[in-house]
């Protein structure tokens, strides 16, 4: 314990019941961490690891059952107000006031923290720049898109510089541009005002920017140290595999992920990044056994590799079961015909054009990604494709039906997984599945068959009688997908399915999606994890309602200016494309003026 | 035929889901049925305009035989209870002011003497009319007591009986108990409150919890969704009506004169009209709070202007006209007629037709609002 | 420490002002709040002032004229003079019964064929059949018929009789509007104070807007005060509307002091706000809060406070519940201040009771509002 630590926790234990009547669960068990003054510390770990509980304990919103916690020299359990006077905290779900405008929400928090007029002027300008909310200051918070709400919550938290900043997954649903801006601000605050920060995150690139990383798993500390030390654990285990010509990276990745000698495999930059187990890695310079015969080269480990290594040591997850997502009816092979055709699609809200003359098409069995900054019109496009929102003009054909005329028919052919958990929380897994099966016209033996099969596919049998609302996050997502796939739709729509999900859950999710696509089901996905675009056959990038780029991930990287000597990852490519467009817009705007 | 079957299956599926969502957790069930139980007992016991041991004070300045006999009649009526005996007129005001007594009977000095002398002797009755209904009822009772006293006095003093006697009988409620009126009204009113609230909240809840989008992407049409919301609300409403019915018949022993089947048919028609209103609210409300507040704001006039609290005939004519668009007015009348009077459905056609008319207006309105807000 | 005093007060006021501003904006922007806070009171005032009345006037009465003698006709003519009765002569019983079934009439007065003959003998009988479904109206009609027949029923002779001299204190006009309007003040104050406040505060708990707010220098007492102040204002607006309507629309006398009426209303408003905040802090859920608020505050204020139904007519247990309710004391005081005047002993006693309730409830709400989540 040193005097310079802003937060010190020793042997913290906390248990509580998830719902009334259910048995107590140990959320934190003997957890010890410290947050150094003037530095950023990160908490990473899967769902239910206890990250939120730990942050709430530090904020004085909960009292621990065991252990000691000292925040800025104060025990938050004993004198929570003294702590709350000096820290800032952004909860996972920042409760904005929907009826108040963006500006009014900001002002409220500035007033509560006693930020002076002069300090506000400079701070607001900076925050607006970061969040890109400057255009919307007068808009009620309730009318913002999900990502923009998140950014506003963040801005409200950063209206002043506290002595300690607690951030609970601050960038869930936030686009890469804003994420970068946010981190710039936080790092600037740390530099200039010696701010101490504790942040929980599921983005490993964010954790890599921190001075210290603590990996939590099921209430226990799995590993802790500098990013370098955690990365170091994977040294010598990491390789990049170049797929054979004509084969997509994700196919190679899927096969590798199922191998027990491999800890992790993800498509990255057209290749597959692999972490092998220590056992599989040969002591000499030859390739590890699972990679034998492949075009592979050793690469430097990243923090993510180290974290995956630590997690996979504890968590046994068989990705092969996730892949067993067959469909009972054989679909025509991929590539024969287009299942979605969008031509000159326009959607206006009053005099605001959310989607502006957008055209694209999706082939059968394709994984199609919809990318774009917050407020780019992704969600609006998405809702129109699902028939939840009528188009102002343009034509929309989904699964061969014109959405203007045969909406009900088209709906029979689609499955929809919304961003927010949207099943009936107090109904059990079985009851939810029975209902949605019935809604799609399944009943009797056919319904029973399908339910049994999706429950097996999504590993839901154990939870069949649990109310959906009490399931942990990962289970909920699997249930939502199971419900959407009951009727074996031709197209599956997934709105930010991996937002807030931990790396393991995301691997598992994509393994399922790629398997589905193999079976001929088309998947349309929105995401803010740019590296996930690598799983897609093609992606479209939107901003301000317009299509900026459309093509395979490789096309996109090339369009962003990738050269053989300067490789780009998808995130860099995305940022480059959006910034090129915005610069051009501004340029033409000035020219017109 | 197949399309019809598919339609029915989908609606049944929606209804099943809705009922499960409403009734699944114990807290939800308590919220649905405990208030009805509490309210019907509360109304049954508390909502009474009948006097019961009403406190009064006596100021007897005569103390003669006649005065004692008059007082004995008041006391033996069983309706009044003497809580104070005064000596002085000055004691009257503080007692009445404080609300300790409902009225004071003041028998003047020389009461018996004047009565015997054949005078029309005044007895003062001072009533606390802060509650004018209770005061009026007490005055009515006392008037009857005095009239009987006079008749007997005449008979004893050789005057023969009163020249004119009024024989009073009361149909449908022989002892004129307010409770009979109240409890039967409650059958309609309480179930209306819940049906309205449930329907109004059902869509708002799904919207707030995000499940509505998930429902809308299924092949279920808006009409099916609406029917799937209506039927469970009606079923819950009918269950509540049955609960009140049981309490009225078995706990309070109010005899059911009409046919149970006809009563339920009448209630069903009423519920359909209510569901139309509830759905219209739910289509307009953006969240649960709004749905609740709108429903509440609407409920007040629906209940107050239904004839339950005060008779519609007592209202000014324009107000009476206004009550014609109030479904509760017809429902209460209908229940009274079937339950207390034993009327058949043919007799209450005058109530059924307006209810059907209300349903015919509100249901398409709700459908229109749905279409224009949602899809 | 002394130097920090004014500073601390300044911070307190600044935060409170910010929260109140936020609350007022939210209040003004949500139409449903305004409907509840302003439109509903107006509707209630109109309904209670113009719609509800216990005063039976021109009660229709079928008169079966089985005897058409001058004596019987005189009797009906006598009844016609009464402003309270509307006799409708019919020829036979079946016709009268049909009118009764259609609820065209409140009762049937049957004048038997031998009426005039027996009247001269001093032994006439009339039959009155009442529609008993609405017991109160039936009783009232009976009273009206009885007094209308009194003239015909008395005989000029030398035998004495008791004449009841009725004096209605506090409501000489004997109109039910006078006793309903003070009750209306109770109803509206309860609605705004308890129901609306419980709902908006429960919404904050439910939607998680408090979690971020908690981890700021804001004190729980400031959060509560920020709810109390605007809704106190809304309550005062409702109160003012009620008082103005009472005085100028319905001409209800205000015998007591207006200042006292305001004072006791303010006390009760605090009680209602305390109930609302306590309910929301305990339930933390909009739907449950609204149901609880209805059952513990609104329904009892309507049913058990003596508003419409006299507490004295209820069974003892129910009376006991009624006497435990703050609304009962508020109503008693209001009715007296409106109709009777400044009855000091009662006013002081009831004010003390209400103040006690306010302190206890607000303290309980404060104790239950803690900066805790989960």
From TrEMBL, chain A:
SMART domains: AAA. Residues 7-243, 340-569 form the ABC transporter domain. GO terms for molecular function: ATP binding. Gene3D superfamilies: P-loop containing nucleotide triphosphate hydrolases. InterPro entries: AAA+_ATPase (IPR003593), ABC_transporter-like_ATP-bd (IPR003439), ABC_transporter-like_CS (IPR017871), P-loop_NTPase (IPR027417). Keywords: ATP-binding, Nucleotide-binding. CDD domains: ABC_DR_subfamily_A. It holds the Pfam family ABC_tran. The keyword ATP-binding applies. The keyword Nucleotide-binding applies. PROSITE patterns: ABC_TRANSPORTER_1, ABC_TRANSPORTER_2. This is ABC transporter ATP-binding protein.
TrEMBL record, chain C:
Its main location: membrane. Keywords: Cell membrane, Membrane, Transmembrane, Transmembrane helix, Transport. It is a multi-pass membrane protein. It holds the Pfam family ABC2_membrane_3. Residues 126-372 form the ABC transmembrane type-2 domain. InterPro entries: ABC-2_transporter_component, ABC2_TM, ABC2_TM_bact-type. It comes from the Bacteria. Coiled coil: none annotated. The keyword Cell membrane applies. The keyword Nucleus does not apply. The chain crosses the membrane at residues 34-52, 178-202, 223-246, 258-280, 292-309, 343-365. It is found in: Cell membrane. Belongs to the ABC-2 integral membrane protein family. This is ABC transporter permease. It comes from Luteibacter jiangsuensis. The lineage of its organism: Bacteria, Pseudomonadati, Pseudomonadota, Gammaproteobacteria, Lysobacterales.
């Amino acid at each position: 314990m040193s005097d310079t630590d802003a937060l010190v926790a020793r042997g913290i234990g906390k248990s509580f019941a998830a719902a009334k009547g259910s048995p107590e669960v140990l959320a934190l068990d003997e957890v010890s961490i410290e947050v150094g003054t003037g530095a950023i510390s990160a908490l990473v770990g899967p769902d239910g690891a206890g990250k939120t509980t730990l942050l709430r304990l530090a904020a004085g919103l909960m009292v621990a059952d065991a252990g000691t916690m000292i925040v800025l020299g104060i025990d938050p359990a004993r004198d929570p107000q003294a702590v709350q006077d000096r820290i800032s905290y952004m909860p996972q779900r920042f409760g904005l006031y929907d009826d108040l405008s963006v500006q009014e929400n900001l002002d409220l928090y500035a007033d509560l923290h006693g930020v002076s007029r002069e300090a506000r002027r400079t701070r607001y300008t900076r925050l607006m720049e970061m969040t890109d909310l400057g255009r919307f200051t007068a808009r009620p918070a309730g009318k913002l898109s999900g990502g923009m709400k998140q950014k506003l919550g963040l801005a409200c938290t950063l209206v002043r510089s506290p002595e300690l900043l607690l951030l609970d997954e601050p960038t869930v649903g936030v686009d890469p541009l804003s994420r970068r801006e946010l981190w710039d601000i936080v790092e600037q605050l740390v530099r200039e005002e010696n701010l101490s920060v504790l942040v929980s995150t599921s983005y490993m690139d964010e954790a890599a920017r921190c001075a210290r990383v603590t990996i939590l798993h099921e209430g226990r500390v799995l590993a802790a140290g500098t990013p370098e030390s955690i990365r170091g654990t994977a040294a010598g285990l990491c390789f990049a595999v170049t797929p054979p010509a004509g084969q997509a990276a994700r196919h190679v990745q899927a096969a590798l992920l199922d191998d027990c000698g491999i800890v992790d495999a993800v498509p990255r930059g057209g290749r597959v990044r692999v972490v092998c187990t220590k056992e599989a890695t040969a002591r000499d310079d030859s390739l590890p056994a699972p990679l034998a015969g492949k075009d592979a080269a050793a690469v430097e480990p990243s923090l993510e590799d180290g974290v995956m290594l630590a997690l996979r040591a504890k968590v046994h997850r068989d990705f092969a079961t996730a892949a067993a997502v067959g469909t009972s009816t054989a679909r025509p092979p991929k590539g024969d015909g287009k299942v979605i055709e969008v031509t000159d699609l326009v959607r206006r809200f009053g005099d605001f054009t959310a989607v502006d003359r957008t055209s694209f098409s999706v082939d059968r069995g394709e994984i199609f990604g919809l990318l774009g900054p917050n407020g780019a019109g992704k969600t609006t496009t998405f809702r129109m494709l699902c028939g939840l929102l009528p188009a102002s003009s343009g034509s929309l054909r989904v699964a061969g039906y014109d959405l203007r005329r045969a909406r009900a028919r088209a709906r029979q052919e689609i499955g929809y997984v919304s961003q927010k958990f949207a099943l009936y929380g107090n109904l059990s897994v079985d009851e939810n599945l029975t209902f949605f099966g019935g809604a799609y016209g399944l009943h009797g033996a056919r319904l029973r068959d399908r339910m049994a099969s999706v429950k097996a596919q999504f590993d839901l049998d154990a939870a069949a009688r649990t109310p959906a609302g009490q399931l942990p996050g990962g289970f909920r997502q699997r249930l939502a997908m199971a419900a959407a796939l009951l009727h074996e739709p031709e197209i599956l729509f997934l709105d930010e399915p991996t937002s807030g999900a931990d790396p393991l859950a995301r691997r598992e999710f994509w393994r399922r999606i790629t398997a589905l696509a193999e079976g001929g089901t088309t998947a349309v996905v929105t995401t803010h994890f740019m590296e996930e675009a690598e799983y897609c056959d093609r992606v479209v990038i939107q901003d301000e309602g317009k299509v900026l780029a459309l093509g395979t991930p490789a096309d996109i990287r090339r369009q962003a200016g990738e050269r053989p000597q300067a490789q780009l990852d998808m995130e860099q490519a995305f940022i480059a494309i959006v910034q090129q467009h915005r610069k051009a817009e501004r340029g033409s705007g000035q020219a017109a003026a | 035929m197949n399309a019809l079957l598919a339609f029915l299956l989908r609606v049944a599926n929606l209804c099943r889901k809705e009922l499960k969502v409403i009734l699944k957790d114990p807290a939800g069930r308590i919220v649905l049925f405990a208030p009805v139980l509490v309210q019907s007992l509360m109304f049954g016991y508390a909502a009474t305009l009948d006097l019961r041991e009403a406190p009064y004070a006596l100021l007897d300045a005569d103390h003669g035989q006649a005065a004692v006999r008059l007082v004995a009649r008041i006391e033996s009526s069983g309706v009044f209870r003497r809580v104070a005996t005064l000596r002085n007129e000055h004691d009257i005001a503080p007692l009445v002011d404080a609300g300790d007594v409902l009225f004071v009977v003041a028998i003047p000095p020389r009461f018996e003497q004047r009565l015997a002398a054949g005078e029309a002797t005044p007895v003062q009755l001072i009533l606390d009319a802060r509650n004018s209904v209770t005061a009026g009822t007490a005055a009515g009772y006392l008037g009857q007591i005095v009239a009987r006293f006079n008749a007997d006095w005449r008979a004893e003093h050789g005057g023969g009986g009163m020249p004119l006697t009024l024989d009073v009988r009361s149909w449908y409620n022989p002892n004129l108990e307010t409770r009979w009126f109240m409890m039967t009204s409650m059958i309609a009113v309480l179930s209306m409150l819940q049906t309205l609230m449930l329907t109004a909240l059902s869509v708002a809840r799904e919207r707030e919890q995000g499940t509505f989008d998930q429902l809308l992407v299924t092949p279920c049409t808006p009409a099916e969704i609406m029917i799937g919301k209506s039927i469970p609300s009606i079923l819950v409403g009918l269950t509540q009506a049955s609960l009140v019915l049981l309490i009225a018949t078995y706990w309070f022993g109010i005899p059911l004169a009409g046919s149970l089947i006809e009563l339920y048919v009448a209630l069903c028609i009423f519920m359909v009209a209510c569901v139309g209103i509830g759905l219209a609210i739910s289509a307009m409300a953006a969240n649960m709070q709004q749905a609740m507040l709108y429903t509440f704001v609407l409920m007040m006039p629906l209940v107050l202007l239904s004839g339950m609290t005060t008779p519609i005939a007592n209202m000014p004519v324009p107000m009476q006209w206004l009550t014609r668009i109030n479904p509760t007015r017809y429902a209460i009348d209908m229940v009274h007629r079937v339950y207390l009077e034993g009327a058949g459905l043919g007799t209450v056609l005058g109530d059924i037709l307006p209810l059907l008319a209300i349903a015919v207006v509100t249901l398409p309105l709700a459908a229109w609002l749905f279409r224009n807000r949602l899809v | 420490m002394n130097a920090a005093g004014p500073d601390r007060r300044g911070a307190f006021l600044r935060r409170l002002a910010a929260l109140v501003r936020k609350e007022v904006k939210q209040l003004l922007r949500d139409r449903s709040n305004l409907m509840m806070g302003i439109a509903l009171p107006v509707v209630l005032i109109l309904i209670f002032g113009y719609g509800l009345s216990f005063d039976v006037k021109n009660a229709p009465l079928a008169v079966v004229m089985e005897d058409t003698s001058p004596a019987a006709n005189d009797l009906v003519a006598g009844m016609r003079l009464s402003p309270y009765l509307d006799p409708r002569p019919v020829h036979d019983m079946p016709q009268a019964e049909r009118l009764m079934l259609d609820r065209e009439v409140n009762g049937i007065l049957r004048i038997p064929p031998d009426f005039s003959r027996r009247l001269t003998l001093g032994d006439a009988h009339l039959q009155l059949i009442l529609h008993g479904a609405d017991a109160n109206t039936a009783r009232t009609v009976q009273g009206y018929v009885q007094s209308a027949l009194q003239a015909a029923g008395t005989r000029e002779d030398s035998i004495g009789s008791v004449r009841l001299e009725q004096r209605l204190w506090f409501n000489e006009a004997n109109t039910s509007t006078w006793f309903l309007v003070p009750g209306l003040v109770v109803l509206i104050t309860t609605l705004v104070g308890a129901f609306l406040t419980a709902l908006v505060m429960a919404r904050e708990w439910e939607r998680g807007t408090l979690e971020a707010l908690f981890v700021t220098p804001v004190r729980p007492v400031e959060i509560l005060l920020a709810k109390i102040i605007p809704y106190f204002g809304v309550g005062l607006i409702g109160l003012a509307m009620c008082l103005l309507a009472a005085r100028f629309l319905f001409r209800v006398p205000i015998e007591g002091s207006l200042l006292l009426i305001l004072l006791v209303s303010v006390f009760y408003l605090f009680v209602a706000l305390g109930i609302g905040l306590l309910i929301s802090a305990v339930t933390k859920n909009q739907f449950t809060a609204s149901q609880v608020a209805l059952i513990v505050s609104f329904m009892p204020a309507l049913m058990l406070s003596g508003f419409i139904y006299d507490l004295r007519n209820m069974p003892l247990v129910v009376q006991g519940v009624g006497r435990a309710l703050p609304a009962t004391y508020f109503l008693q005081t209001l009715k007296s201040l409106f109709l009777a005047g400044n009855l000091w002993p009662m006013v002081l006693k009831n004010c003390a009771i209400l103040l006690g309730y306010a302190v206890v409830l607000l303290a309980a709400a404060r104790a239950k509002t803690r900066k805790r989540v989960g």
